Amino acid sequence: MSDSISPSEAFRISYPLMVGAFLISGTAMLWPAERASLTADLLGVVSVAFLVAGLGLALRIRRLTLAFFERSETERSLGNSRLSRDEMTDALLRRAFMEAATAMATKRHGPQRSLMLVDIDHLKTLNDALGHQVGDAAIARLGAELRKTFPRALIGRLGGDEFCVLCEHDGENAFETHAEAMRVALRHPAPAAGQTIGVSISAGILHLPSNRVFLNEMLHHADLALYASKKGGRDRITVFTSDMLKDAQQRRFIERELRSAILLNELDVAYQPIVDGTGRVIAMEALVRWHHAVRGPIPPSDFVPVAEETTLIDLLGEWVLRRACRDAADFGDLKVGVNISANQIKRDLIEETVAAVLRDTGLAPSRLVLEITESAAIVLTPAMRQRLVRLTEMGVGIALDDFGTGYCGIGYLRAFPIRSLKIDRSFVSSLGRDKVDDAIVSAIIHVGRTM
Questions:
Q1: Widest Cα–Cα separation across the chain
Q2: Residues 205 and 231: beta-carbon distance below 8 Å
Q3: Are 370 and 345 in contact (CB under 8 A)?
Q4: pLDDT at position 435
């Protein structure tokens, strides 16, 4: 007999023995005493023997059945464990992490606790450039480094490259020090699916209060700190402060009001002339402006980044493009430049939008120049570059703005269908006073003329 049996098997084995015992016992009781008392006594002895054997077997079956249920529970636990953990990183999956973290975060007393959200910088660009195997290797490396740095913490993979760490510790400074050491360690190049790369991460830390907290609210606060890390240039760790709640409220206000301003046509466009070496105006650059009815002028540096974070950038970009192309009718034959963002180029909608605006306004494609910043150009994928190529095939010009800020070298220009370069003002402002800047600008102009 095996170490455990199912309840159905136990019943199948014990039932015949128990029935036999009862039949023999009944026969002994009904047997006529005057015919053969000895025979009746023998049947009684056999009946007792069957009963004893049946009871012994029943106890044995009981032990084996309990073992069956224990084994089944263990198998279910192992199965649940496999279902609750990410195979690539061994981190808890989102649902399992949230359940465990909720129980841990809602403790009223105990050691200090900190929550950290982490994700990999520009993972999509890494996947597009080197392949998803390299991206997966980077995610696995981050998971391993988290386990190594925080061996007793709850670690969950919430989705994609986003991880969450909930850790009990003896001091906030020590937790932050360990997190920073992990960030530095990940920056060191290491093998990844046939490549050697360093991993850049951004993280947000929230030190939980000693009283009972709500996990979803704490995750929101840690996410605000993570956002601050990304806004600050990425590759850094930021600790949550209450001022971040005010910043979040400000962003929500700008998003709501900007959407209304676009739909109600409350924005405006200013035009900056572009001149050649003789001072002759050769083009106009469209610059969006917003004068809020209550708060007054809101600079583009405040509302454009908010639009970039949402699909508002598509609405804002189309509004400025349509307005500039319509106003170009007053500029004679001058070209008009309009800024576009990398987020707009990510979507096929950009080609349809440009074609529709040119058709509706009647502007010749050769008079439109779309300007992208060098920082945006560095994150363009092959598919995004192809969209730029198709725009130039329509007759639209592409200009690279703020060139020379250090994001890409001159050799990088080969990958783009660029027709003009706009040198960053940090070089132009010191022309004639700095020989190094003079040489750099001269070199860039020479490259631009030969493109």
A1: 142
A2: no
A3: no
A4: 75
